[in-house]
Amino acid sequence: MTALTQNLRTHCVGRLLIDLPEGSTWKPDASGATIGGIKLAVETDISQEWFKDYIEQRWQEIEAKKSRSKRYVQRSAERTSPLTNSAVFTYGFRRVEGPDVDGVYRNNIFHDAEGYYWVDGTLFKLGPALNGQEKIAALLPRLYARKADEIPFSPGLCLNGGFVRGYYDLGESEEVSWG
């Protein structure tokens, strides 16, 4: 054992736990990821009042959006709160009619969705995602605020200020941005 390996400190980096010598400088800077096609961004040091104001402002922006395209369905934007201090916005409903790649005639309605979740001074932003309302709502309960030196007690993905609980799922693509 050398002097460097006598006093080690564990850090959570993405899905890995790594040991670095005590006193070494490590500043994780992964504040974004894409999980199952849903973009996730993390912001820290956000007050609950700021979050509520931000959500109201964003909702007003979404409600004010109007499109003159004939493809857009005259359907109001929707706002849900699956968890306390969360919001999922569904908007931009549009109809797509015609044959698909297999030649089968389809008449589908698509939408855009985005979600927000505030917990312990951490803001999670999800989306926007095409037809992503259900995926965003399912991802919200897996999100946790995390201090930089906090080591999670369950498997998941560590981000700067946040943690996404859950095992890596081969059917769910995952990408983390560092830098």
TrEMBL record:
<dbReference type="InterPro" id="IPR040761">
    <property type="entry name" value="Tli4_N"/>
</dbReference>
<protein>
    <recommendedName>
        <fullName>Tle cognate immunity protein 4 N-terminal domain-containing protein</fullName>
    </recommendedName>
</protein>
<dbReference type="Pfam" id="PF18443">
    <property type="entry name" value="Tli4_N"/>
</dbReference>
<feature type="domain" description="Tle cognate immunity protein 4 N-terminal">
    <location>
        <begin position="9"/>
        <end position="127"/>
    </location>
</feature>
